[in-house]
Amino acid sequence: HVIDAGEDIKSGEVVLACGLKLRPQETGLLAALGKESAMVYKRPVIGIISTGDEVVPIDKIPQSGQIRDINTYTLSSQVQEAGGIPLTFGIVSDDYDALYSQCSKALLQSDMVLISGGSSVGTRDYTIEVLSNLPDSSIMVHGISISPGKPTILAKTQNKAFWGLPGHVTSAMVVFKAVVLPFIRHIAGSSSLNDKKLNISANLSRNISSAQGRVDFIRVRLLKRDGDLWAEPILGKSGLINTMVKADGLIEVGMNTEGLDKGSQVEVIPL
Predict the structure, then answer these.
(1) Contact 87/109 with Cβ under 8 angstroms?
(2) Where are the domains of the chain?
(3) Residues 205, 268: contact at Cβ < 8 Å?
């Protein structure tokens, strides 16, 4: 077999675009070109803080009104999947000074920070107060029109993003998928060339309701019936991790849509 000159790569051809994620085939291409190294973007370090008097370490047995620290682990895994490096700062109680201290530490050591819990408007929810008082800070967003995940905060502090995520695990994971993930990809230098994960078309197995004026993300599992693919909604409160375990993806119901009918064709965002 003979490969002619220029048959694989032509002279002057752009072989790797800026922001492209290097897969095994791209590293093989670099090797074919005699490149032992390549300039790449630094993986962003994402600080993760879990807050709440009710949150206990996973090696402790929760008492009444307590819950194990699920969010540190789910968010860390999502950060890794997004190409970032998670840096955890443990559990912080509902105390202004303690949260301010950990946020200040995270600001120095991270490129971006995620705080789970304390983003609602309550007497013991200090996230918005702390973020407002960090050096050179401004609150960009407090509340977004999605469900689950409405009480989300985005602040800018010393040109770094601080996200206040809901404490309920499903809400935090959905907000990460919907709005935090694209932000991490941006600061990681990832281009749109990498966004090739296609949604999955399926038929909706039952009617679902939604409120106008917000975007609803519905957890679904995918089932094959008589050769057709069906999306079956998984119902449950936003604090239930098992609903996310059972889900294969999310359906996005638009802001101006009043629910979807059984049999409708929907696009499932893979999880």
Answers:
(1) yes
(2) 1-40, 45-192, 200-270
(3) no
- Tell me, letter by letter, the H, E, C secondary structure of 10-73: CCCCCCCCCCCCCCHHHHHHHHHCCCCCCCCCCCCEEEEEEECCCEECCCCCCCCCCEECCHHH
Both structure tokens of 147: 């469900």
Instruction: Of 189, 213, 176, 2, give the one whose Cα is nearest residue 75.
Output: 176
What does pTM read for this prediction? 0.90
CATH number of 200-270: 2.40.340.10
Residue 174 φ/ψ, nearest 5 degrees: -70, -45
pLDDT in tens, 219-258: 999 999 989 999 999 998 888 899 999 999 999 999 888 8
Which H/E stretch holds residue 56?
strand 55-56
Q: Which tokens hold the place of 204? A: 């909706």
Kindly calculate the radius of gyration of the chain based on its CA atoms and give it in whole angstroms.
22
Pairing outcome for strands 160-165 and 249-253: unpaired
**Could you give phi then psi for residue 217, rounded to 5 degrees?**
-110, 115
Residues 6+ away with beta carbon under 8 Å from 177: 78, 217, 250, 269, 271
Task: For residues 233 and 94, give the distance between their C-alpha atoms in angstroms, rounded to a whole number.
Answer: 35
DSSP string for 177-218 = IIIIHHHHHHHTT--GGG-----EEEEESS-B---TTSEEEE
Tell me the per-residue pLDDT of 100-110, one tens digit each, with 9 for 90 and over. 999 999 999 99
Of 116, 131, 92, 128, residue with least CA distance to 169:
116
CATH class of the domain whose range is 45-192: alpha beta
Residue 127, number of CB atoms within 10 A of its CB: 26
